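REQUEST FORM: STRUCTURE PREDICTION
Request ID: SP-0412
Submitted by: Lab K.M.
Chain count: 1
Length (residues): 198
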Amino acid sequence: MLPLRGKVINTEKAKLGDILKNEEINTIIHAIGGGVGADFSLDDVNYDKVIIMTDADTDGAHIQVLLLTFFYRYMRPLIEAGKVYIALPPLYKISKKSGKNEIVEYAWTDEQLKEITKKMGRGYTIQRYKGLGEMNADQLWETTMNPQTRTLIRVRIEDAARAERRVTTLMGDKVEPRRKWIETHVAFGLEEEPGWIG
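STATUS: Completed
RESULT:
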C-alpha cells in the first residue's frame, strides 16, 4: 500500500518536467517501476495490479480522475494490460445482533441500504463511512483490501479516456466546455448552502 500524502498534480496541464517534480507522482512512478511516458515498459512493472483506493466522496472521485489521467497519459500500457483497478469502499455498514452472533452487511448506495434494512427488519444499526480513515483496520481489510470480499473495478482504456476528457473539460484552459458541463451536471440551490442567502 502506498499512501499519498499531498496533492496529485493535474497532468492535463503540466509539462512532464513539472510532473516529475511532484512528490506524489514521483513516488508512484518509482513504486510501480516500468518508467514513464515513451520509456514505460510493462516488463519492468513491479506489481500485477495497481489499485486506486480513495474515499467514496467527491474529493476521492477527483483524486481518481487525476490518477487515471496520469496513468492514461504516461503509463497507458498499464491500463491496456488490465492492471489498473479502482477499489470501491462501501458507504454504509449495517449490523444487527442475532443471539450471540452479529449479522453485518455493507451497502455502496442508498438504494442498497434501503434493501438491506428492509430485509433485516428492526433492531439494526447503521454506520456511515465518511472516509477510509474512519474505518478500523479490520473493517478496511474486510471491505476494501481482502481479495475474497473487496469490490474492484478494472479500468478500461475507455474509462481512462473519459476521465482524461473530464479533466480537460473541468481543468483545461477553455471556459466554454467547463461552463456547459457545470450547467448540465451541477444543480445549484440554497439547500446546498445552509445559512447562506445570496
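NOTES: The radius of gyration is 20 Å.
Reviewed by: T.R.
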